[in-house]
Write a structure and sequence with these properties.
Strands 7, 8, 9, 10 and 11 form a five-stranded antiparallel sheet that branches. With about 475 residues, the chain is α+β, with helices and mostly antiparallel strands. It contains twelve helices and 16 strands.
């Protein structure tokens, strides 16, 4: 190449770079101001002319990502990553986690770190946070609970809790303004809910504290209907984030709630804790993330288990429908059973992208759900019904109500099983109190704990025996 041609080539390249710099700088400012649609409009023609420009493709892809359009974001961000833009790798890692693709997320995180090191930039705190999410998701995918989802419904986000059809024994889920209406306190949360058990003994809700975080508060309801002094349940329940959407099981000990703190996979996750009566009032054990499929990288909340109807409910926005949430209705199990991690459908089971994968082919789930939902009166309120349960008869049928039995002896055996289950719940509450005393140093209860464990085994065996007897008698 002659010197003249070389000079012309360099000049042309410089002119091209100068022409690009203006639109990209403008897009950078628009992006900083959150005007993502304007960024896309400005950069689409630029990227079409120079599809390998790292800055242009990054801001284009990042704007699509900010608007929730991951399909259009992926290709330009991939180009930007190949041009060494660190933030592109971070966004692609997040997008991979949203798809439950842990291997792709790991590779993008590695590229993110490599790009930062090449540019001699420090590793931000968000790197550790994203790595922690990757580890958490990998562990959760190893322990996806096998559940049976009867149905899913899509409802308005603002009033989703109205769709929960609970039996009276499961208590009541109330809107936030119920807290102030009964004189328990104030709450500024638009989407949180309050909970009152069947015996109207207490109310639990979410409200902001002095730091602006949502915490769970509770207050006893006195015999005359007035509300006692309210107080936060426990500072640790949110684990550094917000805590909302409480639901207390009838045993008075097991509390489900949603939090978006350090133990969350992303957004709100559902947690479970147990409480006991300590020397200084109620004490709460370390909350446990209930895992998948209940939780996802998005918001998941308000898990409610109705023992009378044999139905569980929870809400999620994992399906990304604007201003809507999806409610899954499932059949709770007494014992957790996890899916095989090598199952080719494990990610679909975790995401619940196809609820038919959780269902048995020979069951009419529409009919089953209708038979289990509690009856309602003319005003739409649920009314008391006979105890409900899940009893696999081994012939393709599942009994869920005492009225399903044709044989009187079988019905009596099931009644005894239900009575034993109620006794077991009360017994476990007392056993938990003994364990708590032992944990605090009271070694005098050691023999009582051993006796209690033997009684627990006896009750479980009685439940199993009576349920089996109900099946045999019915045949």
């Amino acid at each position: 190449m002659t010197l003249r041609k070389l000079i012309l080539t360099i000049s042309a390249a410089a002119c091209c770079l100068t022409a690009l710099a203006g639109p990209v700088d403008d897009a950078r400012k628009l992006y900083a101001d959150g005007k993502y649609d304007a960024v896309i409009e400005k950069l689409k023609p630029v990227v079409k002319r120079t599809p390998k420009d790292g800055n242009a493709t990054f801001f284009l892809g990042a704007s699509y990502y900010a608007l929730g359009n991951t399909d259009d974001a992926r290709q330009p961000l991939t180009v930007a990553e190949s041009r060494g833009v660190p933030e592109a790798s971070r966004m692609l890692a997040e997008m991979s986690l949203d798809r439950y693709d842990t291997e792709a997320a790991r590779l993008h995180i590695e590229k993110w770190e490599t790009s930062l090191q090449k540019q001699k930039k420090s590793i931000p705190d968000s790197h550790a946070e994203l790595t922690s999410r990757l580890v958490m998701m990998s562990n959760m995918l190893e322990r996806v609970e096998k559940i049976e989802v009867l149905d899913s419904i899509t409802v308005d986000r603002a009033t989703f809790f109205n769709a929960y059809m609970l039996s009276p024994t499961a208590g009541r889920i109330l809107p936030p303004d119920a807290v102030s209406r009964i004189g328990a306190g104030n709450t500024s949360s638009e989407l949180s809910t309050a909970y009152i058990p069947e015996n109207n003994s207490e109310i639990i809700w979410a409200a902001t504290d002095s730091t602006g975080l949502y915490r769970l508060y509770g207050a006893d309801i006195l015999d005359d209907g007035t509300v006692d002094h309210s107080a936060p349940l426990d500072n640790s329940l949110g684990d550094g984030g917000d805590a909302r959407y409480p639901f207390l099981m009838p045993d008075g000990m097991t509390l489900y709630f949603a939090a978006n703190g350090n133990g969350s996979l992303g957004g709100y996750d559902i947690f479970m804790t147990r409480r006991s009566e300590g020397d200084d009032g109620r004490e709460y054990f370390q909350p446990q993330n209930v895992g998948m499929p209940y939780n996802s990288p998005y918001d998941d909340y308000l898990l409610a288990i109705d023992e009378a109807s044999g139905l569980g409910w929870w809400a999620t926005d994992r399906n990304r429908i604007p201003d809507k949430v999806t409610i899954y209705i499932f059949a709770p199990s007494q014992m957790r059973v996890n899916a095989d991690p090598s199952d080719p459908d494990i990610e679909a089971l975790a995401r619940l992208s196809d609820i038919s994968l959780t269902q048995r082919p020979d069951v009419d789930y529409k009919e089953l759900l209708a038979s289990k939902l509690p009856a309602r009166d003319a005003s739409g309120e649920t009314i008391a019904a006979s105890p409900r349960f899940m009893l696999d008869m081994g012939n393709g049928k599942v009994y869920s109500s005492l009225s399903d039995f044709r044989n009187d002896r079988a019905r009596s055996a099931m009644l005894e099983a239900l009575a034993a289950e109620a006794s077991l719940r009360k017994h476990l509450l007392k056993e938990n109190e003994l364990r708590e005393r032992y944990r605090k140093g009271d070694r005098s209860v050691a023999d009582a704990i051993l006796d209690s464990e033997r009684e627990t085994t006896r009750l479980r065996e009685r439940i199993r025996s009576q349920r089996n007897a109900a099946v045999r008698q019915e045949r």
